[in-house]
Batch of 2 targets.
Target 1
Amino acid sequence: MKFIVLGSGTSVPHPQRSSSGYWLETNGGTLLLDCSASAVHRMARENLEWANLDAIWISHFHLDHVGGLAPYLFGTKHAPETQSRIKPLKIFGAVGLHSLIEKFDKANDYDLLEQPFTLEIQEVEPLEKFEILSGVEAVAVDVPHTNESLAVHIRDKDDKTLVYTGDTGFTKNIGTLAQDADLLVSECSFFEDKPVETHLNLADAMYLVRYAKPKKVVLTHLYPEWDKVDFEKEVRKFSPPCEVLQAKDGLRLEIS
Ligand SMILES: [Zn+2]
Ligand SMILES: [Zn+2]
């Protein structure tokens, strides 16, 4: 698997960190994990084959995770690069995703569901296995953020695994889901003091890392307060059992 950070930030505009989006190349095709408005152009900026994308995973319906879906579909509907595309695009997310996309569509006469290719929207239930890409298995669990928020576990054809938390408060469920994963991509919105219980701070994330023992971790969804923090020094204080990286827009990892 190849993993590329498109946006390591949040809903707060930031000069270096755009909003959520992660590109994943598997043996079964390519997947976009969350689709902020900035992620749409970040794909092109990273020279990724945005017109050939196989599937999109939406972790929850906050606009820094789903706000690029309508612009992306508006792009694929009209761009020269997608006019001869035949293979379907699949969009996965919690119950309510279909209705949300219809509402985006009905905000004006966009006709986003009519594409040169087939658009398949699949709502997934927690703990029900589904095929997110050809031969690539996924399962989602509920996380405490919004009602529909889901973390997802992805197993590639070669058995490499990735867990993406999306936005979440602290729950041991993530530690269970990420058990021995090859890569854990975890939100770590705040450094120490959390203004809300529906996000993680560094101590929460490091607890989950010690519990899950993944092979590698990327901490992301970083609010601007992280700009003032010496990330590596603070992470070292927790003596993590594996490498812990701070997400940056453009970070590329090979999971092999
Ligand atoms: Zn968010
Ligand atoms: Zn959120």
Note: Helices lie at 37-45, 63-66, 69-78, 97-106, 172-177, 202-212, 231-236.
Target 2
Amino acid sequence: MVSYTELGLVHTVDLFKKAVSGGYALPAYNFNNLEQLQAIIQACVETKSPVILQVSAGARKYANQNLLKNMAKGAVEYANELGCNIPIVLHLDHGDSFELCKDCIETGFSSVMIDGSHYSYEENVALTKKVVEFAHSRKDYVTVEGELGVLAGVEDDVSSEHSHYTQPEEVEDFVKRTGVDSLAISIGTSHGRTKFKPEQCTRDANGLLIPPPLRFDILEEIEKRIPGFPIVLHGSSSVPAEYVQLVEKYGGKLSDSVGIPEEQLRRAAKSAVCKINIDSDGRLAMTALIRKVLTEHPEEFDPRKILGPARDELKKLYSHKNINVLGSANRV
Ligand SMILES: [Zn+2]
């Protein structure tokens, strides 16, 4: 057993307090390999942004839990070496059982999500409460994110064909009875790179798909009911057309890709939304650059030369998000 404090990590309580009052959101970037982690830490150190490193159950299986734990510890030391002691959280994304959350808490995670949103309301309350009681009873308080409302789309093991928006009248009761530290809500974001079907969208002059706007009315209603309480948005990639076009130019096929416009995420970040999850954009950036290198340099077989440019692009992407979308730059 290991506590996250031994790894140099922090939980989210103070970070969320500052983010809510400062009108910005913390980046929650998923990682499962070395290059992604390097890019995240480099970007967040350069922009002086706190960061939440997210690991899904699938990523934990892929990368091995012992390696992940030590990579997070290494990330703290790497940030110090780069010259800025940024706060780093290690967070379980979409924990689906008490056992998984417990296991993560006992192996160095400083924060976990328990996603009971696919169960009935009462079952969601009971499961979330059980995880909160375990996490908060630790000597080193571990923070817990719950979820109300269902997002559409596919993300690792999480998938749902239909979304339903969070019902504002449930949030106050849920937060009070479960004791969660933050709440993920559904206001029209969606997992994956095809966030909406073309028939749900309009098209601009260039034929690009424009998604339906986020439901800010629901967000405002929730904020009224639980003022200042930390809100989380999942599925918040913008799916930049440049990356989709680059992937397709070099042989990929990503038809009907559509994301959440960055201006809408910026607007959300200024509210009680204090954690925004971005995964698909990083996947697209990496895939685009890997395809480009392999196509332009077919003789290349050194993985560093193939993954290095992808890593550099990822770093650029994350810096841009911190500065222009989340507003988390210069908050350390
Ligand atoms: Zn999610």
Note: The pocket of zinc ion is lined by residues 94, 155, 191, 234-235, 277 (CB under 6 Å).
